[in-house]
Amino acid sequence: MLAGLALVLLAQYLAAAPASAPATTNAASRPAEVKVMREWEQFGGRRLDVEVDGRAGFIILPKGAKGNSPMEWVWFAPQFAGYPSARHAWIVERVLAAGMAFAGIDVGESYGNVEGRDAFTRFHAAMTARFNLAQKAVLLPQSRGGLMHYNWAVEHPELVARIAGIYPVCDIRSYPGLAKAAPAYRMTAAELEKHLPQCNPIERLAPLAKALVPILHIHGDADGVVPLEANSGELLKRYKAMGGSGQLLVVPGKGHAELDEFFQSQPFVDFLIHGKTPATSPSSRPATSGK
Prior knowledge:
Rossmann fold, about 35% helix, about 20% strand
C-alpha cells in the first residue's frame, strides 16, 4: 500500500516539475490519422479541411491537378481559424496557378516547442503520403510562424526546399519574450534562457546552412512588434556567416501590419514559387544585414 502511494506521489511530482532540458521528439512512434472534414472552394482552388491526430489543418489543391509526380507545395504557419484570410488571396492564387498546393496545421501557441514540432512532423508525413506532395516543402512563416517553422526546419533540413518569411519571429527573446514563451516549453523563464541553444531559431541555423536551404525574408523597418534587426536582420546575418544563402527585403516605413507591400510583393512571390532571387523593387530593397 505504501509502495503504491509512493509511486503515485512520484508521478505527481514528475508531472508538476519544470523541465530541466528540452524534450526530444518522438513523432514517428505511430502513423498519423488524417480525416477530411469538409471540402469547399477557396482562392479558386479545392480546399479540404482536415484533422491530423485531431488537430485542425487544411490543404488547398489546384483545380484539375493531375499527374503521377509529387506536387510541390507551400506550407503556411501559423495556422488558426480564419487563416489563410482574404489578405493572403494574392499569394495563394499565384501558388495555385503555378500548380502548387497550399497547406497548414494548427499547433496552437506553441512558440516552436517540442509538441508543435512533433505535430509538424506528423502533418508532413501524413499530407505528403495522402496527397502525393513533394517531400521538400516550401515554408511560408508569417510573424510567430517563424518560431514554429524554423525550429522544425533545423531538425528536418532535408524536407525543406526554401523558406520565404513575412516579418517572421526569429528570436524568442524578442517575441513573445521568455516569460510568455516559457510555459509552452514547460520551463521557467530562467530555464528557457539556459536552453536557448536548443529552443531559439537564431541559435540553431547550422543544419539549414549546411543543407544550403535558401532563405528570403520581407520585413518592415518600422516593425515595433517583431523588430527587424533583432529578428530577420540578425538571422540572415548569422546565416550568411555560416555560408547559407539568404536575402532580406526591407519595406521602408512599414510596421507589423497586413499591407500590400508584404502580401502583394512580386519579388517575394517569385522566390516563394520559383526560388528566384529577388531584385530591388519599388516597395522593398535588399538590407545591408542580409547581404
